[in-house]
Amino acid sequence: MALEGTLVGKITRVRAIGHRRDVGRAGSPDGPDGAHGDQRERSHRESLLYGGGVNAVERFAANLAPESLRRVAALEVRRFEPRLLGDAPASYDLDLETAYARVVERWRDDLCGMINALVRGELAEVARREGVHRQVIDDASVPELRHLVWDRGAVLERRGAPEVPVLQPRPVILGGHLVIQAPPRGMYPGCSSWPRPLPLEMPAQPPEDEPDSIDELLAAADRAIGVRLGTRGADKGAWGMRAAALVGVIERGSDEPDWRGDVEIKTVPVAIDASGLWRVVEDPAIAMAFERSAVAKLQRTLWLARADLDGGDATIVSWYLLEWDARLAQLARRYLHDRPKGPAGTDQRGVYLHKRFFADAGMLATLNGPT
Question: Is 19 exposed, middle or buried (CB count within 10 Å of its CB: 0-12, 13-18, 19+)?
C-alpha cells in the first residue's frame, strides 16, 4: 500500500525536521554553505521562481511501498555524503514515519541522489504512479527510467513554468546513474562537437624551454592534445611525467606546484562511458600524506585529461585550468581523502581527489559539453 493516505497528516512534522537540518549542518565539516550548498541554493531559487509547492523527493517518497521506503531509508551514507541524522538502524526496525523523514532529510534538495538510490522495481512504481505508460516503463532501461522519473519530478517542481537550466540543470547518465555536470569555471580548449571526440594522433611538439607565461603554458597544452604517450610500464607516474614534459614542465616532486611554483600539472584518467559520454575513471593522486601540500597544489591546477588506448598506449584528450575560489575550497574539503599509496603492504599514504570532484568543479562539462 502506498503512503499517500498514511502520511498526509505527518508532512508538517517532517518539514519541521527538515527546517532543523541547517542548524545541524552548520557544525558539519562543510559548514552551512558546504559541498551541498549549491543544491540547496538551487532549491531555494526554484521556490522563489516557481512559487514553492511540490517537492519531488517528498512526493516520490510518499509513493514508495512500505518495504521500499524502509530499504531506502536504511541505506548507508556514502563516504563523501554529509551525515545529517546519524546511522540508520536496520530497515525492519524503522517505522514508516521515521523512514519517510530520513529519506526526505537526506535527499530533499538532491532529487538525482534519491532517484539513484532506487532499484528498477521502485523506479517503475514511481513512474507508474506519475502516469507514465506501462509499455514505456517496460521498454525502458534502468538509466532511462531514472531520466523519466527525474523529468517528472522537474515538471512537478516548476509547476508548468518554462524550464530554466540554471535552476534545473538536466542530469546526464554516467555509470547508469544521474549526474549533474556543473558548468565550467575555468579555461579549456574549444570544441566544435560534443562530447569531445578522441583526438587524432599528433606529433609531440614540446617547447624548447619552460614556458615564460601562462599563455605559453596553455599553448603547449593545446599542442599536447592527441600526442601519444607510449606504454607506461611499471611506473604509475610515467604518463604524468611525459604529459608534463609535453607542456615544457619538469616534475620535481617538491611541495610547491610544478610550473614556477604557481601551476600544478596533473593528469586525470578519463574514458568513454556506456552512455557515450566521458567520465573520470579513478581518483587522481595529489600528494603524499606526509607532504601536507595537497591544498597548495590545488590553488591553480592544469588538469590534462588522459585516455587509455589500445596496446597499452594513452593520449591527451583535453585540458582544464582550474583556479582556487570559495567553491573549490568547499569541494576540496569534501573530496580530498587519504589512503595507502604504493605496493601491497605499504605503510605510506597518499592524498587523493575523489572523481566526483570533476563533475562538481565543471571539468566533465568541458569534455561532454555544458548542459
Answer: exposed
Sign of the alpha-carbon torsion through 70, 76, 78, 81: positive
Ramachandran angles phi, psi of 217, nearest 5°: -65, -45
- State mean pLDDT over 259-270: 95
pLDDT value for 250: 82
Q: What is the DSSP annotation of 8-73?
A: GGGHHHHHHHHHTHHHHHTTSTT-TTSTTHHHHHHHHHHHHHHTS---HHHHHHHTS-HHHHHHHH
pTM exceeding the 0.90 threshold for the entire prediction: no
Question: At the topology level of CATH, where does 214-368 sit?
Answer: ECO RV Endonuclease; Chain A (3.40.600)
Q: How far apart are CA 154 and CA 182, in angstroms?
A: 17
Which of 155, 198, 149 has its CA nearest to residue 173? 149
User: What residues are paired with 270 via a beta bridge?
Assistant: 280, 307
Asked whether the bond before 195 is cis by omega within 30 degrees of 0, the reply is: yes
Is the torsion defined by CA of 68, 74, 76, 77 positive or negative?
positive
The neighbouring-strand residues paired with 339 are 350
Placement of cell 603492504 in the chain: 345
Q: Among the residues of the chain, which ranges form H helices?
A: 4-7, 11-19, 21-25, 37-50, 56-62, 66-73, 96-107, 111-116, 120-129, 134-139, 142-158, 214-224, 238-246, 294-297, 326-335, 357-360, 363-368
In this structure, what C-alpha cell is assigned to residue 149?
Answer: 522519473
Q: What is the pLDDT of residues 277-316, one digit of tens each?
A: 999 999 999 988 766 678 989 999 999 999 999 999 999 9
**Residues 319 and 225 sit within 8 Å (Cβ to Cβ):** yes
Q: What pLDDT shows up at residue 43?
A: 54
Q: How far apart are CA 279 and CA 17, in angstroms?
A: 36
C-alpha 301/C-alpha 259 separation (Å) is 10
Which grid cell sits at 153?
A: 519530478
- Domain layout of the chain by residue ranges: 4-179, 214-368
Identify whether the C-beta of residue 367 lies closer than 8 Å to the C-beta of residue 317.
Answer: yes
Order across the sheet with 336-340: list the strands: 285-288, 349-353, 336-340
Dist. CA 181–CA 364, nearest whole Å: 6
Question: Tens of pLDDT along 242-255?
Answer: 999 999 998 766 67
Cell of 98: 521515521
